[in-house]
């Protein structure tokens, strides 16, 4: 049932290599996706109709379709238009889109949670739209959004497992490959599960902690 | 793409609905004892339930399906793809529903518990007659949005060969070489599926609200 000592030492480099790819995809998706989410949030709040329409469309599709379908749409679908992407870049585009769509809702809600007087005060001080956002709304809004953004980051880390379907050699692919060559599926998959848990559980505890701290800040 | 091509997608749709409904039902039922264990007075039981919930949520759904389908299926007992998916997603749903129930129960004002104690209601009666009806109303919107999330999660069942929507889309795109349209259509189907759930949730919430706020 469980992997033996020998198996662990032979599998571990392979699995850690997979984990490293999973983490790279997570980091890049978040680095691109969260700023994209901010842009989408501002787009949805914009007065311009066309801008609002495009942003809403990107958000609704990115949230409404399963991440797996987004991934396959970009990896298997886009080549029919002549645009062929490697599995790594396809994974990042799909997950960054997914991240942008979800975080735009989180960021929009947090910007709207900033008291209305703050916005009026910024206008009264003669700040332009950009400075109002940069110095007044974002510093206060992002503090509210932080726990939710961190929580979402864990979900994206787990979401990288979907890249198995587009042949990206991340953690699940590696474990599956080990399973299919040695026919020791259960131990190999279990080992991958332990690696996921080793990152997700401490991260979840950290998010809980940040949530409590943020709650304390709001109460003061 | 012709209308005949749509047929497999519609067949896939029914499997998606069946898988979603089944997994949600399992989760909604199993979530109750899991919450009871999570809130138990015995600390070993509480600790066990907490750890189980954390572990289930820490591992990606696709890996759970693989562990059940390939791990258990090849080693311990053969299991069909649909049952494996149902088991895996039901397990995940149970952990998430337990957390939703917990949030709902925690939102009940402690005055309600005190009043029930003052009226000398038994523990079972407090839960059944006072807490559960109020918690149900609180849990409903989160449960509905989780149901929508679960519906999208069922797409991972395509990786172990359950012939649901994403699987049919994959097959169709390989058959027709028109991945762009096929996957766009599949995505649209998922969005369309989530609309009635959101609508039902709003209607139910409205009714329940109207019952209280008179």
From TrEMBL, chain A:
<keyword id="KW-1133">Transmembrane helix</keyword>
<feature type="transmembrane region" description="Helical">
    <location>
        <begin position="84"/>
        <end position="103"/>
    </location>
</feature>
<dbReference type="InterPro" id="IPR000515">
    <property type="entry name" value="MetI-like"/>
</dbReference>
<keyword id="KW-0812">Transmembrane</keyword>
<feature type="transmembrane region" description="Helical">
    <location>
        <begin position="57"/>
        <end position="78"/>
    </location>
</feature>
<keyword id="KW-1003">Cell membrane</keyword>
<protein>
    <submittedName>
        <fullName>Amino acid ABC transporter permease</fullName>
    </submittedName>
</protein>
<keyword id="KW-0472">Membrane</keyword>
<dbReference type="InterPro" id="IPR043429">
    <property type="entry name" value="ArtM/GltK/GlnP/TcyL/YhdX-like"/>
</dbReference>
<feature type="domain" description="ABC transmembrane type-1">
    <location>
        <begin position="15"/>
        <end position="207"/>
    </location>
</feature>
<keyword id="KW-0813">Transport</keyword>
<keyword id="KW-0029">Amino-acid transport</keyword>
<feature type="transmembrane region" description="Helical">
    <location>
        <begin position="188"/>
        <end position="210"/>
    </location>
</feature>
<feature type="transmembrane region" description="Helical">
    <location>
        <begin position="144"/>
        <end position="168"/>
    </location>
</feature>
<dbReference type="InterPro" id="IPR010065">
    <property type="entry name" value="AA_ABC_transptr_permease_3TM"/>
</dbReference>
<dbReference type="Pfam" id="PF00528">
    <property type="entry name" value="BPD_transp_1"/>
</dbReference>
<dbReference type="InterPro" id="IPR035906">
    <property type="entry name" value="MetI-like_sf"/>
</dbReference>
<feature type="transmembrane region" description="Helical">
    <location>
        <begin position="21"/>
        <end position="45"/>
    </location>
</feature>
<comment type="similarity">
    <text>Belongs to the binding-protein-dependent transport system permease family. HisMQ subfamily.</text>
</comment>
TrEMBL record, chain B:
<keyword id="KW-0812">Transmembrane</keyword>
<feature type="transmembrane region" description="Helical">
    <location>
        <begin position="58"/>
        <end position="79"/>
    </location>
</feature>
<feature type="transmembrane region" description="Helical">
    <location>
        <begin position="182"/>
        <end position="201"/>
    </location>
</feature>
<dbReference type="Pfam" id="PF00528">
    <property type="entry name" value="BPD_transp_1"/>
</dbReference>
<dbReference type="InterPro" id="IPR043429">
    <property type="entry name" value="ArtM/GltK/GlnP/TcyL/YhdX-like"/>
</dbReference>
<feature type="domain" description="ABC transmembrane type-1">
    <location>
        <begin position="13"/>
        <end position="201"/>
    </location>
</feature>
<dbReference type="InterPro" id="IPR035906">
    <property type="entry name" value="MetI-like_sf"/>
</dbReference>
<keyword id="KW-0029">Amino-acid transport</keyword>
<protein>
    <submittedName>
        <fullName>Amino acid ABC transporter permease</fullName>
    </submittedName>
</protein>
<dbReference type="InterPro" id="IPR010065">
    <property type="entry name" value="AA_ABC_transptr_permease_3TM"/>
</dbReference>
<keyword id="KW-1003">Cell membrane</keyword>
<dbReference type="InterPro" id="IPR000515">
    <property type="entry name" value="MetI-like"/>
</dbReference>
<keyword id="KW-0813">Transport</keyword>
<keyword id="KW-0472">Membrane</keyword>
<comment type="similarity">
    <text>Belongs to the binding-protein-dependent transport system permease family. HisMQ subfamily.</text>
</comment>
<keyword id="KW-1133">Transmembrane helix</keyword>
<feature type="transmembrane region" description="Helical">
    <location>
        <begin position="12"/>
        <end position="37"/>
    </location>
</feature>
């Amino acid at each position: 049932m469980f992997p033996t000592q020998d198996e662990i030492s032979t599998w571990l480099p392979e699995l850690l290599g997979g984990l490293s790819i999973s983490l790279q995809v997570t980091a890049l998706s978040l680095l691109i996706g969260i700023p994209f989410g901010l842009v989408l949030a501002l787009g949805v709040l914009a007065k311009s109709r066309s801008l609002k329409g495009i942003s809403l469309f990107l958000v609704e599709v990115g949230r409404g379709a399963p991440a797996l379908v987004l991934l396959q749409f970009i990896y298997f679908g886009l080549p029919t238009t002549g645009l062929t992407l490697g599995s790594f870049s396809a994974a990042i585009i799909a997950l960054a889109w997914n991240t942008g769509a979800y975080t735009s809702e989180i960021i929009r809600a947090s910007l709207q949670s900033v008291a209305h007087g703050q916005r009026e005060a910024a206008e009264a001080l003669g700040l332009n739209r950009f400075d109002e956002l940069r110095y007044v709304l974002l510093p206060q809004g992002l503090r509210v959004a932080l726990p939710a953004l961190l929580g979402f980051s864990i979900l994206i880390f787990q979401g990288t497992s979907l890249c198995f379907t587009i042949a990206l050699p991340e953690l699940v692919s590696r474990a599956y490959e080990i399973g299919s060559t040695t026919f020791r599926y259960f131990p190999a998959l279990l080992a991958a599960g332990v690696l996921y848990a080793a990152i997700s559980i401490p991260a979840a505890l950290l998010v809980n902690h940040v949530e409590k701290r943020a709650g304390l800040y709001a109460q003061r | 793409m012709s209308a005949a091509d749509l047929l497999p997608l519609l067949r896939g749709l029914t499997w998606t609905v069946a898988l979603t409904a089944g997994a949600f039902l399992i989760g909604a039922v199993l979530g109750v004892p899991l919450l009871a264990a999570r809130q138990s007075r015995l600390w070993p039981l509480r600790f066990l339930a907490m750890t189980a919930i954390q572990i289930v949520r820490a591992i990606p759904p696709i890996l759970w399906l693989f562990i059940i389908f390939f791990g258990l299926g090849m080693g311990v007992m053969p299991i069909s793809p649909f049952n494996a998916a149902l088991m895996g997603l039901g397990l995940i749903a149970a952990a998430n529903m337990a957390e939703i129930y917990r949030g709902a129960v925690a939102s009940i004002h402690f005055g309600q518990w005190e009043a029930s104690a003052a009226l000398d209601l038994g523990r079972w009666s407090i839960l059944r007659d006072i807490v559960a009806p109020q918690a149900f109303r609180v849990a409903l919107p989160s449960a509905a949005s989780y149901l929508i999330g679960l519906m999208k999660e069922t797409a991972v069942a395509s990786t172990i060969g359950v012939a649901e929507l994403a699987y049919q889309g994959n097959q169709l795109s390989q058959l027709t070489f028109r991945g762009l349209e096929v996957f766009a259509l599949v995505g649209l189907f998922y969005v369309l599926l989530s609309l009635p759930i959101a609508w039902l949730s709003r209607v139910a919430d409205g009714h329940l609200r109207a019952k209280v706020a008179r």
